[in-house]
Automatic annotation (TrEMBL):
One of its GO terms (cellular component) is cytoplasm. GO terms for biological process: protein transport. This is Arrestin-like N-terminal domain-containing protein. Residues 217-238, 378-401, 406-425 are annotated as: Disordered. It holds the Pfam family Arrestin_N. Residues 217-228, 414-425 have a biased composition (Basic and acidic residues). It comes from Mycena alexandri. Residues 95-145 form the Arrestin-like N-terminal domain. InterPro entries: Arrestin-like_C, Arrestin-like_N, Arrestin_domain-protein, Ig_E-set.
């Protein structure tokens, strides 16, 4: 029969579901019911915390398929909390406010089938004998690297309105409506802050300009046709006509073997859809469950459409029409910072697609994005060693830590973690 919430619990593990920062000193509160433990035959209560990188690659050898695996330990700590010989506190429930410091150089939490970076903690009540199952309480948590002082200053500059230099990426194509005739030209320019890396979970401003030039036409051929058939190629004037895609390219290695994997983080300018997904994520957090879908949130998009410009060519009656539209907005990326490690790497590519009528006429512009951490390492809790020291977290307000990174449900499941396996049962 399942225990009700009013029945006493043997082990209660209290650990808020927040993103943790590498180098952070964090607290875990463990409540342990001693009378229940003695009755249950528990002889040792231990606390374990660990982080690992796991990669796996499938290879087919004739009729045999083999999954090659490799595990790289990041850190591990095991501490004994209680034995039957521990002093009697006079209370049925003993509380252990346990503290531990995460290593400073931890990589971010991550999950795909070929590679994972996981962090977990576990409280185990050991029961002797092969037929006696151990008792345990478990918690999975996520980690992000700590932002440096310069990264925090950059993040604050972006929040207040970017006034620094911009980096432009340009692309152009020759397209035509049919298979014969003169080509038209289309141009795209993407402008983003000129930074070595962009902080995650921070609105990043950008500008995306599209310029089109018709083939040579008569001046009387006005670009805005009365019958709703503008001269080819007409630039899109609605943000919903564009497609915005973020891709993550992943390379996993198991010794001499490696595999490439690509994830598509589908994005677009559908603001109502993005808001619905954001509300869904927030509702999931409010009910203490993991999010099932996360998107890079695009804020309100502003469009400025220029008047068509006539550019004469050989003589005044012949020339081209140039049209231009510029979209400006911000995008927030809640994904794990870019990583290169011993057995797993990933990087990001942001792509804009501008559709035009005709076969293979879509204009695609893409740029690599290096994502950096966006959270400061909090100072140690009051009373912990080093709590009186000054850290760079005091330079700028770090703001509330996000409750979740973009991690799939499989990350939060119990499969694949290096749990105490209850004597292989």
């Amino acid at each position: 029969m399942a225990a009700t919430s009013s029945e006493p619990q043997l082990i209660t593990l209290r650990f808020p579901n927040l993103v943790r920062v590498a180098g952070e000193t964090i607290e875990v509160h463990i409540d342990f019911n001693v009378p229940l433990a003695r009755k249950d035959g528990i002889e040792n209560l231990r606390f374990e915390v660990r982080g690992v990188i796991k990669t796996q690659i499938y290879r087919q050898y004739g009729q045999v398929g083999i999954v090659h695996k490799e595990t790289v330990p990041l850190f591990s700590s095991v501490d004994s909390l209680w034995t039957p010989e521990s002093p009697d506190t006079g209370s049925d429930v003993v509380s252990f406010p346990f503290r531990f410091k995460l290593p400073d150089d931890l990589p971010p939490s991550f999950y795909c089938w070929e590679g994972t970076i996981r962090y977990s903690l576990e409280v185990v009540g050991e029961r002797p004998g092969k037929l006696h199952r151990n008792r345990r309480a478990r918690k999975i948590f996520s980690v992000t690297p700590a932002a440096s002082q310069s990264q925090l200053l950059t993040k604050e500059s972006l929040r207040q309105g970017w006034t620094g230099p911009w980096k432009e990426t340009k692309h152009e194509e020759k397209i035509r409506h049919g298979i014969w005739g003169e080509y038209s030209h289309v141009y795209a320019t993407l402008s983003i802050p000129d930074l070595p890396s962009l902080p995650i979970a921070t609105p990043i401003p950008y500008s995306f300009q599209i310029v089109t030039e018709t083939k040579t036409v008569d001046h009387s051929d006005h670009p805005d046709d009365k019958h709703g058939h503008p001269l080819f190629p007409a630039p899109p004037t609605l943000s919903t006509d564009l497609t915005q895609v973020l891709r993550r390219k992943i390379e996993c290695r198991v010794r001499e073997r490696k595999t490439l994997h690509q994830e598509k983080k589908r994005e677009n300018f559908d603001l109502q859809k993005n808001r619905r997904l954001a509300e869904k994520d927030q509702k999931a957090l409010d009910t203490d469950t993991v999010q099932t879908e996360s998107v890079a949130c695009t804020e309100a998009v502003e469009a400025v459409v220029d008047e068509p410009e006539w550019i004469p060519k050989d003589h005044k009656s012949r020339g081209i029409w140039r049209r231009s539209v510029r979209f400006t907005s911000t995008i927030t990326l809640p994904f794990a910072p870019t990583l290169s490690s011993e057995t797993i790497d990933w990087r990001y590519i942001l792509q804009f697609v501008v559709p035009f009528p005709g076969l293979k006429n879509d204009l695609k512009l893409e740029i690599p994005l290096d994502l950096g951490p966006g959270l400061a390492c909090p100072p140690p809790p009051t009373g912990a060693p080093g709590s009186s020291s000054h850290t760079y977290a005091d330079v700028l307000p770090a703001g509330p830590a996000p409750s979740m990174l973009d991690l799939p449900p499989a990350y939060w499941g119990e499969e694949g973690h290096d749990w105490d396996d209850d004597k292989k049962s």
